[in-house]
Specification:
There is one protein chain. The protein contains 5 helices and no strands. By secondary structure, the protein is mainly alpha-helical. It folds into 2 domains: 1-41, no CATH class; 42-79, no CATH class.
Length: 94
């Protein structure tokens, strides 16, 4: 069996101190049978559209707090801004 990264191994063991995985959700699904049922359910249309829009815009999909945390971690803007090019700044002669 291939080695799992430490983060994944810690999360799966129930010791995810970084909060990368929603362990409460994992505990709500007691067996693989439930996962199979959940994976066969079609996604809600609104979720599909949100995923499509985020993918086309090359933006992360998630709550605003999640996106803000990503922006802070990567020191770059990851949320959508105003459409179009930025206006040119007029050069003022001194």
């Amino acid at each position: 069996m291939p080695r799992k990264p430490r983060v994944v191994a810690a999360a799966l063991s129930g010791r995810d101190s970084g909060g990368l995985i929603d362990l409460d959700l994992w505990r709500e699904i007691p067996s693989a049978m439930h996962w199979a049922d959940a994976l066969e359910m079609p996604p809600a249309e609104q979720d599909t559209e949100r995923l499509r829009q985020a993918t086309l815009a090359d933006l992360p999909l998630g709550e605003s707090e999640f996106v803000e945390d990503l922006e802070h971690a990567f020191a770059r803007r990851l949320s959508s801004g105003r459409p179009g090019r930025k206006p040119n700044r007029a050069v003022v002669a001194a």
